[in-house]
Write a structure and sequence with these properties.
The structure is a homodimer of 226-residue chains. The first copy, chain A, is α/β, with parallel strands linked by helices and 226 residues long. Chain A has two domains: 77 residues, Winged helix-like DNA-binding domain superfamily/Winged helix DNA-binding domain (Arc Repressor Mutant, subunit A, Orthogonal Bundle); 112 residues, NAD(P)-binding Rossmann-like Domain (Rossmann fold), CATH 3.40.50. Chain A is 42% helix and 17% strand. The interface between A and B is large, with 75 and 75 residues.
């Protein structure tokens, strides 16, 4: 299993490689060098060669990588050649946004259904999906090939949602609720925490500002915190 | 500057602490122990004490941390006590979703305006915002106190958007486009890459599946890639 050896930082870059490779293919190109890929992605050519070597595809001197072959290999490494179906639990702003977001299809993910427990929301349309009652989710999962669930409910409802999904047979959870969730070992959990990202942006901005005004007194900051 | 010493992993957890502290405060509680916080967030009490020590607030034996004091200290450490205004460039699905997402207000971020270059979109409403023409962005930034810009345009337009924003005086950029962007040293850039997160989820799911079927032949996988 070559896959086991692909480090996660390389995996995180795979979608960016795919995007560039597909653009070049659509423009009629057949080969691309590590140097060109490195320039597009702001990486070093060495890093690019290392990332791509893990797919089993090697570049040829002076010719570079075969674009089509790399697309197939990366797509296969990620398992994106078998399009996955996902459902979303929680049709609030974020859940509805994710349901309507067409960017997922680029990586073989189809949002097949959207669930909520609020009777006011059930039956409403979000893009092409109709919001379904959450108590029909078990039935839905059993009768469709859904393997991934996106959790977009408030933090205090997220663990209950995860427990229910696992019980229904879901094996992959993408959690957008700002809470760590516990799942059994055979379930894969990926978390995207928008608040955490924004916290980092905020503190970096604050530090930049402090660097620039260093030495000046800031009467708003209590001395204990300087 | 105590702030300089707060490690980024602690910063990433600050929003989760805040959320729990605010829930407890709203429930009428005044103190909370490191053990309780640790249990809520799936951390160790030692980690919690370390994270919170960086705010300058210390817990008292048997009493714990004063909830209100911690809220003030964390909010201040993040700079979230001075509400920031942000604008969004790109009113596609993701940009519109982010514009309508009410979760940002919890961390002192107000989305003040949404811009697009598509004449068909300009003038349309997204929540309470009207989509504005992108060529008025400079004027908008000059006449409002906007410090943060969210980039939600396609990858091939993202660098041009960043260049324009920096030229207009934006100092903090939150980039949702799947592309590394180059900005001057005095600009802070935070990237949220949904495709990268999903790539990790995909490969972890694939590995789990392979573990379970280990030893079985999978005719779909060419031998070079096993």
């Amino acid at each position: 299993m070559a896959d086991e050896r692909i480090p996660l930082p390389s995996v995180r870059r795979f979608p960016s490689y795919l995007r560039i490779l597909m653009q070049r293919r659509d423009a009629g190109e057949r080969h691309i060098s590590a140097t060109e890929l490195a320039r597009e992605l702001d990486l070093t050519p060495i890093q690019v060669r290392k990332d791509l070597a893990s797919t089993g595809i090697e570049g040829r001197p002076k010719i570079g990588f075969a674009i089509e072959g790399l697309i197939v290999a990366i797509t296969h490494s990620l398992g994106w050649d078998n399009a996955a179906e996902a459902l979303i639990v929680g049709a609030g702003n974020l859940g509805s946004a994710l349901a309507a977001y067409d960017g997922f299809s680029a990586y073989g993910l189809r949002i097949a259904a959207l669930f909520d427990k609020d009777p006011e929301k059930i039956g409403r349309k979000v893009g092409s999906l109709t919001i379904l009652p959450v108590d029909t989710i078990n039935q839905y999962i059993k009768s469709h090939r859904v393997t991934i669930a996106v959790i977009a409910v408030p933090a205090n409802q997220a663990q209950a949602a995860a427990d229910m999904l696992v019980k229904c047979g879901i094996r992959g959870i993408w959690n957008f609720a700002p809470k760590n969730l516990r799942v059994p070992d055979d379930v894969v959990m990926q978390r995207t925490d928008l608040a955490a990202s924004f916290a980092v942006l905020s503190i970096m901005l604050r530090r930049k500002y402090q660097e620039e005004t260093q030495g000046e007194e800031d009467p708003q900051i209590p001395s204990a915190m300087r």
